[in-house]
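Self-study notes.
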Amino acid sequence: MRVFDMSDVNNKSVLLYESIGIVFIIFLGATLHFTFEWSGSQPAVGIFSAVNESVWEHLKLAFWPALLYLLLESRPLSKSCNNFLAGKTLGAVLMIAIIPIIFYSYTSVTGTSIFTIDISSFVTSVVIGQLVSYKLLTYRKPPKVLDTIALLALVLLAACFAVFTFYAPQMPIFRDPITGRYGIP
C-alpha cells in the first residue's frame, strides 16, 4: 500500500525545500541571537530576538525563522503538499520542544551549560523539525480540522513569544542564568 499521494519527483522537491529550510533557519536563528543587542535593545526587535540568555529566549531563534520559512515556502508548496500547515507547525513545535529537553537533560547530569552542546541541540532540533515536516508534507491528507489546530497553535506560540518578552513568568526557563533577570532587562 502506497502512503504518499505525490509523485517521487515532487517528494524530492519538497525534500529540497525542507533541506534549504534547515540552512535558512540555522543561519537566521544564529543571527537573531545578536540582533537585539545590535539594535540598541529596541523592544520591537526583542520580540523576534533573544533578549537574554534564558532557555525561553533561545527558543525564539528556532520559532521565528521557522515561521518565516513557512511563509516563504507556502506559495510553492501549500497547494501541492498535503498537511502543509500541520506539517510546518509540528516541525516548529518539535524544534522548540527539543531544545529544552536536551538542555535540561544534559545540565541535570553535568550541572552546567556547555556551549557546544547548546549549539548542537539547536542544529539537531532544526534538522528533526524539518525532517518531520517533510514526512508530513508528503503523507496522506488528514482531516481539515488539523489545519485549524495548527493555525491556532502558531498564533498562540507567536503571542507567547511576544508577551513573554516583556512579561516573563518567574520560572526557571525564563530566567537569564547570567543576570538572574527575566525578559527584557
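Second protein, same conventions, sequence then structure:
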Amino acid sequence: MTRFRIVPSSSSVSTETRSRVHNVHAETRALTGSIEGQLDEDGLPQFEAPHHARIQVPVESMRSGNRLQDMEMQRRLEPRRHPLIEVFIDRAWRLEDDGRCRAAFRVTAHGRTQSFEEDFRLRLDGRRLFVEGEHTFDMRDFNVKPPRFLTLKVEPDGTVRARIVADREGS
C-alpha cells in the first residue's frame, strides 16, 4: 500500500456561508492526515484495491480575518469540547478519464458524524498527489446553530472547499 502524507503548507480548507449583507469566509492550512491506496504500473490510483484517507482539521485554526466573526464561530463550534473536524474517505471511484472521481466519506464535527458522497478531482504529479473538491453542508446536521453577528444572520448552508496536497512516503 502506498501512503501519501498531507503537506499542510500547500493544503487548505475554506468555508463560505451566506448572509443578507455579505458572505462569511474562513480558512485554514493546519490540515494533517494521510491517503493510502495501491498504484498501478503507471502510478495511477487503483480504486478497486483497498484504499482510505483520514484528514484532520483543528477547529481553532479556522479564521475569517474578522475578530468578531472568529469569536462567534469558535463559540458555536466549541473547540475545547470538539477540537477536531475529521474526514474519513471510505471509498472512491473514477468517474471519467479527466481526473474526476467520486468519494463516499464521513465527516465528524461537533460530536456528530454524517455520511456523504461528492465529486472531486485527483491528479498525481511524480511523488505529489493533488486532490480538490467541494461540498455544501448544513451546519445544523452537526448540531451547530447558524451564527449571528449583531444584526447579521448567517444561512445554515455553507460550502467547504478542500485543496489537499500530499507527498508520497518512502521510496
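Instructor comment on the second fold: The CA atoms of residues 132 and 163 lie 5 Å apart.
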